[in-house]
Amino acid sequence: MNHTPVGVEPGSTAASPAAASAASAAAPRLRVDRLTVRFGGLTALDDVSFEVGAGEVVALIGPNGAGKTTVFNAVCGLVRRAAGEISLDGASAANGPTGLVARGVARTLQGLGLFDSMSVLENVLVPLESGTVRRVQHAEAAAQASGCLERLGIAHLAAVPVAALPYPERKRVALARALGTDPALLLLDEPAGGLGEDDIDALADVVREVAASGCSVLLVEHHVDFVMGVADRIIVLDFGRVIACGTPDEVRADPRVEEAYLGIEPAA
Ligand SMILES: Nc1ncnc2c1ncn2[C@@H]1O[C@H](COP(=O)(O)OP(=O)(O)OP(=O)(O)O)[C@@H](O)[C@H]1O
């Protein structure tokens, strides 16, 4: 896995010179710069900045309503930015529902969003054949989708309707569908939610392997042990602002995080 730090943002707890020089050496895979999103009078994101490097796993954590999903939606162009810039591999993203998906961003959803009556393989084929990501020949798409099912240990379920599967397998299908597009940036929305410990361990292995292959991973997750075990860096949001950013150890030791996220009052 690539552990290269790619920069330190306002509120960061990790400000090493190495991080600064790495950040300036190459454009990060994802750059979110001073992002502000408002819903009417509510400021859901307020001046949020962070970066995700190639092959890096970055976790966004924070209490309910902190703005994590809104970051994903902004990266995908599903909510309009009131201010700020988002870029992928140095190319600026339009402020609307265009561009990023075609440029190699894939996302899983909290609600999975699978087509229940379709088979596992058919679900994974949907984005490959729809032309929303890119248009590939059917044989090539089928081979790519099958490879993803193998990778996630569900090849034997290829012909099974999704409706017949238990929740952990359904989550694997959703992940396979995202990975099937061969993304440069993978957005995972609560990937460990609803899973048991064995499935979470297997998921962590997959995330590490995906990152080792060069794909960048940005994930939103409440399962603290999973986050601490898999993330290279963690960004902590609270009320739409970045309150801390650093390695798992740095974030774990930050009293602001304990106070905001874990609900622990800092020692007097
Ligand atoms: N489409 C919307 N319209 C109005 N308000 C919204 C909308 N989407 C999100 N919000 C509000 O913006 C804030 C941030 O929401 P968001 O869903 O990003 O938080 P979150 O950190 O993902 O929370 P959770 O952990 O509960 O999923 C919340 O106050 C939420 O109610």
From TrEMBL:
Keywords tagged on the record: ATP-binding, Nucleotide-binding, Transport
GO MF terms, alphabetically ordered: ATP binding
Domain ABC transporter: 30-264
CDD domains noted in UniProt: ABC_Mj1267_LivG_branched
Bilayer-spanning residue ranges: none
rRNA processing among keywords: no
UniProt-listed InterPro entries: AAA+_ATPase (IPR003593), ABC_AA/LPS_Transport (IPR051120), ABC_transporter-like_ATP-bd (IPR003439), BCA_ABC_TP_C (IPR032823), P-loop_NTPase (IPR027417)
Pfam families in the record: ABC_tran (PF00005), BCA_ABC_TP_C (PF12399)
Protein name, per record: ABC transporter ATP-binding protein
Lineage start: Bacteria, Bacillati, Actinomycetota, Actinomycetes, Micrococcales
